[in-house]
Each structure stands twice: as C-alpha cells, then as structure tokens.
Amino acid sequence: EGIEISETAAGVARDYVASQGAHAKITSGDFFRLEASNQYKLIFDSTFLCALQPTQRHDWAKTMASLISKEGELVTNIFPNRPHGAPDPADGHVGSGPPFALSPRLVSDLLTSVGFEQVSLFEVPENQRARGMEYLARWRLKS
Questions:
Q1: DSSP character for 133?
Q2: Crossing angle of the two packed helices 57-67 and 104-112, in degrees rounded to 10
Q3: Kind of pairing between the strands at 68-78 and 40-46
C-alpha cells in the first residue's frame, strides 16, 4: 500500500505498478492525517523526510510511530547527506531545500525521541546509490 499527496503522482505510480504485473493499493492523501488504526509491518521512506519543511520533522516521526505495528520495521533512505567535513544537519545546518539535508544522527534523534530504536545502519555502496551519499537504516519500536 502506498500514499502520495499528489493524485497525478499516485496515478503514475498505479500505472507503473500495473505495468510491472504487480498489485498494490496506491492512494492520494495527507500522510499526517492517516488513521493510526492502519498499522503496517513495513514502511519505507525514501526522499519523503528530506522534502518536508524542517518544522514538520517531529510530526513525521510521531506519525511514523503511530503507523508502524509493534512487530513492524521502518526503513529510511537517509538522503541527501552533507558533504564530508560540513556541519551536521542535526545541528541545524539543513540548507535551503527542499531537499533539506539529513544525516544519520538527525534521523536517529527524531526517531528515538518517539520510541524507535535503530536495528541497523549502513552506507549504500557507491555503485548502488541513486544520487550522492546515501544510508539505509532499519528501525523498530522499543518493546
């Protein structure tokens, strides 16, 4: 199941899924207004958090915590990252975005503040990255 704020983008995603012979429910709507009764075993965030205004980030984390089931996992693609040697976005240096800069520490600070614990974090190998430095992290709610 997927959600997209733009009906046009949701339609494109539905067409793509169908062209691949796959089945998925893709709707348009507001992520921040999703019902907490819809609990998911897996949520994958790639390029959503970095597109949000920095003032929306804590709400993103709270909504993720309300949507993930107790046995579920959240997987985050942490992108874009600061150039090596630049200040950490966790210290407020997020750029003028969107996309706004992220870092593993920034995402960890957000998610641990709402009850997640990090299961793993790894740097995506250079030959598998879509763009620039990327990290993949897995999270679950603390028991």
A1: S
A2: 60
A3: parallel
Residue 93 three-state SS: coil
Q: Where are the beta strands (DSSP E) in 34-98?
A: 40-46, 68-78
The single residue listed with the structure tokens 């920095």 is 54
Percent of the chain with pLDDT over 70: 99
Please, which contacts does 22-30 make with residues 24 or more away whose CB atoms are closer than 8 Å?
25/1, 26/1, 26/2, 27/1, 27/2, 27/3, 28/3, 28/4, 29/3, 29/5, 30/5
Q: Are 5 and 31 in contact (CB under 8 A)?
A: yes
pLDDT in tens, 36-79: 776 888 899 988 999 999 999 999 999 999 999 999 999 999 99
